[in-house]
Write a structure and sequence with these properties.
9 strands; single chain; 17 helices; alpha+beta; about 50% helix; Cytochrome p450; about 500 residues
């Protein structure tokens, strides 16, 4: 009986503490739905479609509101004006990374994606400069992507026009580009190490986008005490980290500090330069996590976009025909597409932008946090508060993109058929946390897709109108449904 009394008193104390913590801060934070003790508003959020829930909340509470995902408040920014004001106008104050418990357990605050403070600033600055040194934004990087585009086409020819699921092959191409940057070598598409890497990456994205992962990130205590897909995720992460560790050992043995070959070499050179600095962020642990971050981000976002792109091009064959007509007119059939072609291909450029807008790959991006107490729209947001930006609300804004739920390249074309830029185009987020590899991703999408359409007709096994483009999961990323496609040589 004594144990029961203690348990009841303990639970009562937790409930009172939860109510006090939630009530004491709500007067300073934006409005929002009333939270329940301990679990907050989680029962009011559809973990299978978080974006839809945020849209419904915004209709009641406006463009800035507070949700309690568990016992901690999260401020949600909905719509272009609120997102821009935070990420651009107050970029420094909103540049923190909010806690994401599942990957945080593996990364331990290191790397470039989930880190904070000086460590994040140094890793981001170093990563960006190293990618520039390795050719990002210049002809050398374009050459790498063109080589891989040619290899991709040759692999697609081997299908002999027969139907197949393109997921794996479309992942290989961007994965090999990032491998050439980090390891200085690409893999044959049938290499067993390469197959293992791809399997791990594909599985991780599916797990991270599942409803269970959204629950685990809200209640991280589940990670330690319950079985589930989070354990498989940790196993996959550890596999990748061990693989990178072996690569680092190989690089260290053959390192020439005067002639770094790739990202790992540049990092090892920096480590040598800072070996007498006890506060240095350049450690083996940080190298492995940063390389893993670049590898995962540089592979999955592009490969998923490519997979979605081909699905949309099959569903809308009239769009595909117009792109191929532009390819014939500007590039022809006898040379490889190059980045200079893009400025002469406004319709193709509009299609690529519309694909990224329509698929809404990262509906809420990764969570931010405020780095200091900040007054924002007459609310006072305490330092460390998690911030969620609804990229869906920006990419699907009805005023900027009429009929936003429709796939329409005209969203990025003016009345004369010229390409039209939009400040609302934020598939890579915005501000100080914008994707480091944005330039590389845009280059890959243009070169891979134009090279494919230069060489093949895309054929669906079903009536194009019957193709479903609804994502099968969109917790972390929008994951497209599986489909079969035929690549018929032109």
């Amino acid at each position: 009986m004594d144990a029961v009394v203690v348990l009841v008193l303990g639970l009562s104390f937790l409930l009172l503490l939860s109510l006090w913590r939630q009530g004491s801060g709500r007067g300073r934070l934006p409005p929002g739905p009333a939270p329940l003790p301990i679990i907050g508003n989680i029962l009011q959020v559809d973990v299978k479609n978080i974006s839809k829930s945020l849209t419904n909340f915004s209709k009641v509470y406006g463009p800035v509101f507070t949700l309690y995902l568990g016992m901690k408040p999260t401020v949600v920014l909905y719509g272009y004006e609120a997102v821009k004001e935070a990420l651009i106008d107050h970029g420094e104050e909103f540049s923190g990374r909010g806690s994401v418990p599942v990957p945080d357990k593996v990364n331990k605050g290191l790397g470039v994606v989930f880190s904070n403070g000086e460590s994040w600033k140094e890793m981001r600055r170093f990563s960006f400069m190293t990618l520039r040194n390795l050719g990002m934004g210049r002809r050398t990087m374009e050459d790498r992507v063109q080589v891989e585009a040619h290899c991709l086409v040759e692999e697609l020819r081997k299908t002999n026009g027969l139907p197949f699921d393109p997921t794996f092959i479309l992942g290989c191409a961007p994965c090999n580009v990032i491998c050439s940057i980090i390891f200085q070598n690409r893999f044959d598409y049938k290499d067993q190490d390469f197959l293992n890497l791809m399997d791990n990456l594909n599985e991780n994205v599916k797990i991270l986008s599942s409803p269970w992962m959204q629950v685990c990130n809200v209640f991280p205590i589940l990670i330690d005490y319950l079985p589930g897909s989070h354990n498989k995720l940790h196993k996959n992460f550890n596999f990748l980290k061990n693989y990178f560790l072996e690569k680092v050992k190989e690089h260290k043995e053959s390192l020439d500090v005067n002639c770094p070959r790739d990202f790992i070499d540049y990092f090892l050179v920096k480590m040598e330069q800072e070996k007498h600095n006890p506060q240095s962020k350049f450690t083996y642990e940080n190298l492995i996590v940063t390389a893993s971050d670049l590898f995962g981000a540089g592979t999955e976002t592009t490969s998923t976009t490519l997979k979605y792109a081909l699905l949309l091009l099959m569903k809308y064959p009239n769009v595909t025909v117009k792109v191929q007509e532009e390819i014939d007119h500007v590039i022809g059939r006898h040379r490889s597409p190059c980045m200079q072609d893009r400025s002469l291909m406004p319709y193709t450029d509009a299609v690529l932008h519309e694909i990224q807008r329509y698929i809404d790959l990262l509906p809420t991006s990764l969570p931010h946090s405020v780095t200091c107490d900040i007054k924002f729209r007459n609310y006072l947001i305490p330092k460390g508060t998690a911030i969620v930006t609804s990229l869906t609300s920006v990419l699907h804004d009805q005023k900027e993109f009429p009929n936003p739920e429709m796939f329409d390249p005209g969203h990025f074309l003016d009345d004369n058929g010229n390409f039209k830029k939009s400040d609302y185009f934020m598939p890579f987020s915005s501000g100080k946390r914008i994707c480091v590899g944005e330039g590389l991703a845009r280059m890959e999408l243009f070169l891979f897709l134009t090279t494919i359409l230069q060489n093949f007709q895309l054929t669906s096994l079903v009536n194009p109108k019957a193709l479903d483009t609804t994502p099968v999961a969109n917790g972390f990323a929008s994951v497209p449904p599986s489909y079969q496609i035929c690549f018929t040589p032109i």
